[in-house]
Design a protein that fits this description.
2 copies of one chain form a homodimer. Chain A has 9 helices and 10 strands. With 256 residues, chain A is an alpha/beta fold. Chain A has a 7-stranded mixed beta sheet. A 3-stranded antiparallel beta sheet of chain A has the order 1-3-2. The two termini of chain A are 29 Å apart. The structure holds a DNA duplex (30 and 30 nucleotides).
DNA sequence: CGCGATTTGTGCACGTCTTCACAAGCGCCT
DNA sequence: AGGCGCTTGTGAAGACGTGCACAAATCGCG
């Protein structure tokens, strides 16, 4: 392993240099590494150690090294990782070498915000279409784009070669929209509606539920409260939490 | 074990009936079960089997049973789970018996949408304060609430006894806001800014990064494309994905 | 040219999560 | 009252993810 030759990234023509099938946990962390790497690059460093990158990404350095090793990584012992090269590698693996077009269905409260979110544009995506089922919303202009009716999905997807759909409708409408998306060839869905989607095999769904995140935090609050209520000496239950707002993980000190 | 007596939920006075410390993976799924249970309740069923609830929540029934067993669960063999009782139990464990107040910092694009998101209100939370650092935004009314300046945090937190903060600022401002939140006694943070927060021990942080979710989907798209490109017979690469938009997981057929 | 400082890549052990498979328990019907 | 079918709760096995600790590799310096 690790003869110094780049297996896939640079010659980005035919693609298909046999993507290694990474552990899901690793895949989920690669985007975070990518973001951290861009920060490091912006701060002028050409290389970064696993330690430095790990703390910038909020993980343990051993985990980071193992993750990177899975993609046949590009580090140099005694030196660290070449920032530019690693960015290129991760972007390649994540399929971000070309900007991906996504369709956003549901331009309500949340959809509106997503349509205007520039974090998508800066991280490899292009919102290529806004769609809604409500005729009252069709025609509205958001962020320079016109909202079209969801029934135009077939044309829209064909025009823009869209493979990813984002659902930001109410829960009741989500399954229907998912079916429509699948029917026109979308194979990845990001679902913001609080419901389970059922899709054919081969279609990937990820779900983001804002209330669930809060509920998980609520559990920990509850547990913390029930612990500080009994134990002996501690004192300073809910109201205290005195000074020390200092660091714990220390992500500063990146390259150097 | 499992003598039929409710360890904690009903007598909701003194609390502290020794929360069992659940596996994190279980905690992360409880909110989904809760949502599914409300659906079941709305459809009129009084009991539900692990199979039924599991498919409504999009998980495997063995996993659901084990999860519920961790909280000393309330099922009856041969019958299933009492829907109302289970709802009460899970809400208790998640600390949702009283509505929790949260402070939302950052009323930009995304923050605006979060402020108007009714999913919070209906799932046990109350947005008790909107804050922003930009003087131009202070005073604005959103959804019946007035935006206050972030420096008023100490008063706001005291007034409303807030323990959870939501950060929806740009990445650059997030760490500063987190420090401020921690300083006034907030012990749980939901972070929408694309950056790592460093906080003292005892403070919980959960992160939601919308672009990361898309990048994970992008990886799977890339992999699917690189697989359908080579293999022999398949054909129908990107453009096809013919009919069959049918079900796979089938979450319908809930109780019955 | 060799040596020491540094940092990656990884074998191994450990812990957590998932899944299977089945005994124990419950209600209903005869 | 007894038996039968259904469903929970759980032990045990397996899969997966994590973190330690160290050998291998590279650089820079004397």
């Amino acid at each position: 392993m690790s003869q110094h030759r780049h297996p896939g990234a640079p010659g980005r023509a035919g693609a298909v240099p046999a993507l290694p099938d990474l552990p899901e946990a690793t895949v989920a962390r690669l985007p975070e590494y990518l973001r951290a790497l861009h920060n490091v690059a912006d701060s002028g460093h050409e290389t970064v150690s696993s330690e430095g990158l790990a703390s910038a990404a909020g993980v343990n350095s051993a985990k980071l090294r193992k993750d990177l090793s899975h993609l046949g990584s590009y580090g140099t012992r005694g030196v660290g990782y070449d920032v530019a090269l690693l960015i290129e590698q991760i972007e390649y693996v994540l399929g971000l070498t070309q900007r991906r077009a996504v369709a956003l269905v549901g331009v309500g409260n949340l959809g509106h915000a997503l349509a205007g979110y520039d974090g998508f544009a800066s991280r490899g995506f292009r919102i290529a279409a806004l769609l809604d089922a409500d005729p009252a919303r069709v025609g509205e202009e958001i962020n320079g784009m016109i909202v079209r009716h969801v029934d135009e999905l077939p044309q829209v997807v064909a025009e823009e070669s869209i493979a990813i759909g984002v659902i930001a409708t109410p829960a009741g409408a989500a399954q229907g929209v998912a079916d429509q998306l699948v029917a026109v060839g979308v194979t990845s869905i990001l679902n913001f509606a609080p419901c389970v989607l059922s899709v054919p095999e081969g279609v990937d769904v990820r779900k983001v539920d804002l209330a669930i995140e809060l509920q998980i935090l609520s559990f920990h609050e509850h547990r913390k409260a029930s612990l500080t209520a009994l134990p002996a000496t501690g004192g300073s239950a809910l109201t205290a939490l005195p000074g020390g707002l200092a660091a714990t993980d220390t992500q500063e000190a990146i390259g150097t």
